[in-house]
Amino acid sequence: MASIDNPLPGTETKPGLPQTVQVHLGRQLRAAYAPLETAATPEIFLALIEKLEAALAAQGRAVEPEFRQGMLAALSSLRAFALSLTNNAARADDLVQDTILRAWQNQHRFQPGTNLNAWLFTILRNAFYSEQRKRMREVQDEDGSYAARLFTAPDQGHRLDVQDLRAGLAKLPPDQREALILVGAEGLSYEEVAGICGVAIGTIKSRVNRARNRLAELLGYGDDDLTGDRMMQSAMGEGV
């Protein structure tokens, strides 16, 4: 996991974005996402897993302990990702429950030794977009009202810059936001996120880069800041 004084994975220096901005965005992204990751796991998820285990036991079968433990450990991250996609707690919980059911039914397809979280994120993401297609509409945010509600802080003690970043995240296009969250907040590799989203690695890198630059703009970093940093890097001969 990245330290607080270093950029998160996926937020390393790119042309046009200063290192100091990289560090700031990485730090604030983790701060904005942390409350969702550390929130108590809703009992409905644990109860569902218990029911599924009981159903298996009735058939004289048992789930692999590693799979069960991995799923339990992933629940908070799954709910956080679902909230970032839906901006609705009830829908997010339904989506996580659907993901648990699908994963349980298809656990024979999971390859031990690979990233279980990435596999679960793929199931959740596919379920979300399948639901969206059924609704035959896309979320619109012409006036920024949706953005203002997404990532609402669970308490009033959060710093203003974290709240600003939450609002900035919500203003990003969905494909950029999910790429930045999966790479930056969840710590998945570009390759893993490319697999989850079903696109090329270069596309994910581009989405993360555009998301970072847009966030920097929303947080008030002007062209002069970026230009000055490029000039300094060029004068020092640093590779970027």
UniProtKB/TrEMBL annotation:
Pfam families on file: Sigma70_r2, Sigma70_r4_2
GO biological process annotation, one example: DNA-templated transcription initiation
Keywords, comma-separated and alphabetical: DNA-binding, Sigma factor, Transcription, Transcription regulation
Domain RNA polymerase sigma-70 region as annotated: residue spans: 77-137
Record-level Gene Ontology MF annotations: DNA binding; sigma factor activity
RNA polymerase sigma factor 70 region 4 type domain: residues covered: 164-215
Database matches in InterPro entries: RNA_pol_sigma-70-like, RNA_pol_sigma-70_dom, RNA_pol_sigma70_ECF_CS, RNA_pol_sigma70_r2, RNA_pol_sigma70_r4_t2, RNA_pol_sigma_r2, RNA_pol_sigma_r3/r4-like, WH-like_DNA-bd_sf
Superkingdom: Bacteria
Entry similarity comment: Belongs to the sigma-70 factor family. ECF subfamily.
NCBIfam families the UniProt entry points to: PRK12547.1 (NF009199), sigma70-ECF (TIGR02937)
Name of the molecule in the record: RNA polymerase sigma factor
Organism: Methylobacterium terricola
